[in-house]
């Protein structure tokens, strides 16, 4: 009879332990990074809308003088995440032209103001945004006069 009690007590202890383990596993799951959506019911919005985003990029992107001098041009495509608070995070280059231009795009993205976050079922969520950034040298060639304008800026 004593053996049965000890066995029953051991079974209860294992069940309690298993429940505690399950609770701690569920806590680990909730601390895991949240899902990043690509399409949501309400997409993130740059302050002022799409035209304001274009204007902001034009005013904050700089053509690296060395890249301009060497005639490096093309379209860099970047992605970033707008988190639940509207902050721009995780800039990533998905189509590179040259490291000089890539670094400039990442620098510009890191300086973006907060966006209005995207929403799914009325709840702010993390949303991935893809943005092409074209770099075109004037007249399709490198030019010392243009270089002087970029440096004096």
Using the CA coordinates, give the radius of gyration: 26 Å
Strand content: 15-25%
Give the beta-strand count.
Answer: 5
In round numbers, the mean pLDDT is 79
Task: Spell out the helices and strands N to C.
Answer: HEHHEEHEEH
Biggest sheet layout: 5 strands, mixed
Describe the structure concisely.
The protein is of the alpha+beta class. It contains five helices and five strands, in the order αβααββαββα.
What does the model show?
This protein is an alpha+beta fold. Helices cover 44% and strands 23% of the residues. The protein is built from 5 helices and 5 strands; from the N terminus they run H-E-H-H-E-E-H-E-E-H. Strands 1, 2, 3, 4 and 5 form a 5-stranded mixed β-sheet that branches. The radius of gyration is 26 Å and the shape is elongated.
What secondary-structure arrangement, pairings included, does this model have?
Elements: H1 2-31, E1 36-37, H2 50-60, H3 65-69, E2 74-82, E3 88-95, H4 99-110, E4 118-120, E5 123-135, H5 144-152
Parallel strand pairs: 1-5
Antiparallel strand pairs: 2-3, 2-5, 4-5
């Amino acid at each position: 009879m004593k053996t049965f009690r000890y066995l029953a007590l051991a079974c209860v202890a294992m069940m309690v332990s298993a429940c505690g383990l399950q609770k701690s596993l569920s806590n680990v799951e909730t601390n895991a990074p949240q899902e990043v959506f690509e399409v949501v019911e309400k997409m993130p919005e740059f302050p002022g809308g799409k035209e304001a985003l274009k204007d902001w990029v034009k005013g904050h992107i700089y053509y690296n003088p060395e890249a301009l001098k060497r005639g490096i041009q093309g379209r860099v495509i970047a992605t970033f995440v707008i988190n639940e608070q509207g902050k721009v995070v995780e800039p990533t280059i998905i189509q590179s032209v040259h490291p000089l231009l890539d670094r400039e795009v990442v620098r510009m993205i890191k300086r973006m103001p907060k966006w209005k976050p995207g929403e799914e079922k009325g709840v702010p969520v993390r949303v991935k945004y893809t943005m092409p950034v074209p770099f075109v040298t004037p007249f399709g060639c490198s030019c010392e006069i243009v270089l002087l304008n970029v440096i004096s800026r």
